């Protein structure tokens, strides 16, 4: 790894740590303000469940979204460095002034702003859609407003259920909610499995090739280059059509996953001819990785002494890639032997080459399927609601109801709801930094794509540990705003708000949308307060927070652009 890359990874983990103590208030504000836990107990509780999220969220959907907001051609180490610096500065400023802004959105804004600055400094004619995935950015931006409203709506629902006097009605509604959540998250699992198989079939990649080529045609004047781009589009369209048709055929097999398991589904999928094309494409990627094409290309742009090495490696790769077509004709071993003999590799190189090229189709498919498995999350959600039901049955039906007993019950239930929210916080926010580190590894040439980089074992461990340590450091300035200034929170309202926040974070994580835990819990607290009366919410404070949320992405983008400009001046 280069020194620059190590600095960026260090900055990313520092940002994750700052994110932890900046957003610690989100996890602990209600449980501290209701005096269920002391501040020290609360941060320990939140930090522990931040790390527990590592074992619950295995798909890394949010990390993939973050890493792909900027297209790979414009992801460079200076861009990532500038985005991180802007995000860290904005986070520290808002923490200092006690403003609960979004760490998620400052990271996204910084990443996008630095990339736009870098691209336009080289070529001002570039279209914004060629640099950043504007569809992803707009979706993320939309959830600045949607996340708090979703949290508010769910919080109001839980509040109305929890304050209802009829225990049997309360238990029935909670049971129905458990069923709905189970079915909804099962649907998310099924959808994500199909999406993962679609990625395996290179459907997304071919769509991107077509989109990029069409944009290039719009800016290209040479008829010869336009003709080449049109041929590229036609070839990608044929592959795309084949992949989409295969996915449609394979969907009934994928739906058998809950009953027949990943191994059986993967075995059936591996028989499809479109999978064969995907495997050959993966072999081509492995050849590029073996000769470090991406890394050498990055180095060649920085230093011309690497240009000859890059050109030689590219020539080797281009000569080997056609041989991958033999994979399904003569078998893996024969294909490798053809390549080794053709390029006169020595015994050591040929052995290493064979090891690196090895591909297990069924094993890879099992991994893609299992990434989407959210059974643990479903058990956690439904199990939590069942605990609520058992508690209400015991306190309101088995025992004589009393105000004191109910107050004690809600204080104890708040431990469960705050744990759920801390899990959502860890799963949502730690993944954002995972995406940035994966993008930096791709930019340094260590990997060909974000998906491959995400398989590095230490990335999730380091990110979840950093956010957990950050939460342990606390964020007392923001606790006051979240716990008292928006509305006075009782244990019942704390349970409603935290359960709503956790539900919202689990929902958005499954959809791969990076939302702000700050926005989510703020909306949830407002919803809980508004069920008493609208005047219970201090709307002036809320409007000030909203302005901070709206400004975060554009301000972070401008700051990152300025940092990138200064970095280029000094380099």
Describe the structure.
There is one protein chain. The protein has 571 residues and is an all-alpha fold. The protein is 81% helix and 0% strand. The protein is built from 27 helices and no strands. It has helices spanning 3-22, 24-33, 39-52, 61-67, 77-96, 103-122, 128-131, 134-163, 167-200, 203-219, 223-254, 257-269, 273-290, 293-302, 307-320, 327-330, 332-342, 347-357, 361-371, 375-398, 403-443, 450-453, 458-473, 476-485, 491-510, 517-530, 539-570. The radius of gyration is 26 Å and the shape is globular. 45% of the residues are buried. Residues 477-487 have low confidence and may be disordered.
Main sheet overview: none
Helix-residue proportion: over 70%
The tally of beta strands, per DSSP, is 0
| Cα gyration radius (Å) | 26 Å
What is the CA-CA span between the terminal residues?
A: 20 Å
Quaternary state, please?
A: single chain
Strand fraction equals under 5%
CA-based shape:
globular
Task: Supply the key terms.
globular, 571 residues, mainly alpha
Question: What's the helix and strand layout?
Answer:
Layout: H1 3-22, H2 24-33, H3 39-52, H4 61-67, H5 77-96, H6 103-122, H7 128-131, H8 134-163, H9 167-200, H10 203-219, H11 223-254, H12 257-269, H13 273-290, H14 293-302, H15 307-320, H16 327-330, H17 332-342, H18 347-357, H19 361-371, H20 375-398, H21 403-443, H22 450-453, H23 458-473, H24 476-485, H25 491-510, H26 517-530, H27 539-570
Helix pairs in contact: 1-5, 1-21, 1-23, 2-3, 2-21, 2-24, 3-21, 3-23, 4-21, 5-6, 5-27, 6-27, 8-25, 8-26, 9-11, 9-19, 9-20, 10-11, 12-19, 14-15, 20-21, 21-23, 21-25, 25-26
